Amino acid sequence: MIEVEDVTVSLGGRRVLDSLRLSLPERRIGIVGRNGSGKSTLARAIAGLIVPEAGRVTIGGADMARDRRAALRSVGILFQNPDHQIIFPTVEEELAFGLRQLGRDPAGAAEMLVRFGRADWAGRPVAELSQGQRHLVCLMAVLAMRPRVILFDEPFSGLDIPTTRALRALVAGLEETVIQITHDPAAIDGYDRVVWIDAGTVRADGPPAAVLPAYLAEMEAPDAERLA
């Protein structure tokens, strides 16, 4: 169970999340909202990458911001730009890093490459890979750590259609709980739940069929009408 308990976050003097409260037991959850709504900040708070000024996020009772080891065991996060995430020069080094952080056998990196049919990537320089391939490296690195929750923060933005389809198929087959931050309602069609974040609070929350039509209607309205 993921519990977001009255979480407040301010960045640069602006209130980004405002006493946000959510219980998230579902296996597939989408989070939508316009730019600056607070959805990416929420993802970072769930992953323990931000310490809220008030409130907390817990998974299985562990405070994600204050128990770093529990956060690493519980949550993996993939960002929009894989180059903001990859820090080692070769694929196997990148996959082994998280395992070492958790005190696990780094040989699990090679096992993950075999699982995805990429054993030949072990010593390959990450710089030689395409953007879609680097996204796959990030996903394998997260999966190697065996988290209970995987957060995707607009991970497929800017990718071509075949690469996006391939990565979405991989995500669809994951056993872990998935939370996806997205602007694209099609990416979360069929999910168990959608949370619409607006100005740091919950605008709507429920099944996709109950939330997405209203969200789409507002996003497609003329700019003048939306800003009125």
Automatic annotation (TrEMBL):
Pfam families: ABC_tran (PF00005). The keyword Glycosyltransferase does not apply. Keywords: ATP-binding, Nucleotide-binding, Transport. It comes from the Bacteria. Residues 2-224 form the ABC transporter domain. Transmembrane segments: none annotated. GO terms for molecular function: ATP binding; ATP hydrolysis activity; ATPase-coupled transmembrane transporter activity. SUPFAM superfamilies: P-loop containing nucleoside triphosphate hydrolases. SMART domains: AAA (SM00382). GO terms for cellular component: ATP-binding cassette (ABC) transporter complex. Belongs to the ABC transporter superfamily. PANTHER family: ENERGY-COUPLING FACTOR TRANSPORTER ATP-BINDING PROTEIN ECFA1 (PTHR43553:SF24), HEAVY METAL TRANSPORTER (PTHR43553). This is Cobalt ABC transporter. It comes from Roseivivax isoporae LMG 25204. The lineage of its organism: Bacteria, Pseudomonadati, Pseudomonadota, Alphaproteobacteria, Rhodobacterales.
